[in-house]
Write a structure and sequence with these properties.
The protein is about 45% helix and about 15% strand. By secondary structure, it is an alpha+beta fold. α1 links the parallel β1 and β2.
Amino acid sequence: MHQSSEILWENAAQVIEPRVTAAGIHVNAFDPTFPMQVRFLKLKAPSSVPLRRHDYLEVLYMESGAAAYRVSGREVEVNQGDLFIMGSHLDHGIQTYITPTIRAVVLYFHPRLIRGEGATIEGAEYLVPFEIQREGFPHSIPASTGIPTEVLDLIRRIHQETADSTPHAQLAMKTYLKMILVLLMNYYAIHAATNGAVVRKNRHLERLQPLFDYVDHHYVENISVEQAAGLLRMSKSHFMRFFRAVTGQAFVSHLNRFRIGRAQHLIATTDLTIAAITQDVGFCDQSYFGVVFRRYVGMTPRQYRDRLRAA
């Protein structure tokens, strides 16, 4: 007999923050045999979701409220009834609350669930909307298109199946997921004129991967643009153009956002002083750290800590 899966609204900060690594990467607690998950999350101002990235894919339906997300240096507004689509390896987080509280229904899944054991043309087609998220990509799908409500219905069907771990239930969940992906494929078709765009984006990201790995392990150190360019064996001018074209932001902005995301994690999860955190994330001067933190988060580090504790 099919069981009903109860809806439990969870505090997003408590769900997400404990599983963010020192490098600012969120590691989801997927079932390794079937990496898909539906969560019902709630947040309230001024608590925030620090900039982070992950290797899974995310489809968020804004059940109530509205917020402005920061995605790779760009602001994306998500209102009640909208859908928010997020691929892997992009820095993102809530920048500003438009309403005091928000509630979101979120579907997380790992791309290997669709790709299967090997790369197939079919699997690549399903995942195109997540593979073409370069500069200018519209991460938010407006409620007025009707697509978000269709996707929400399918996410709820997936959630209903989670109470049953049988192969039949997993087949149903995967079928509903593919139906969601078809809706997204059709909507984003204009942004995916050819699969060549996907191939080029992946190739460019692979070209930058050694630098991303280096930043993950050396963000505390002074990393100059010249040093970053040298690591990739590019001239400084070519590197600056290439990095901005691929990521949508300058390298210095990427590095600062990475460090501030790490600082948000330390402020939220430790009792370290602001001075200690300044040093731990690669800033030599606490005053400058405060200026950069305020630029990206909208408040000082101390205000951020006080508001998190009061939330």
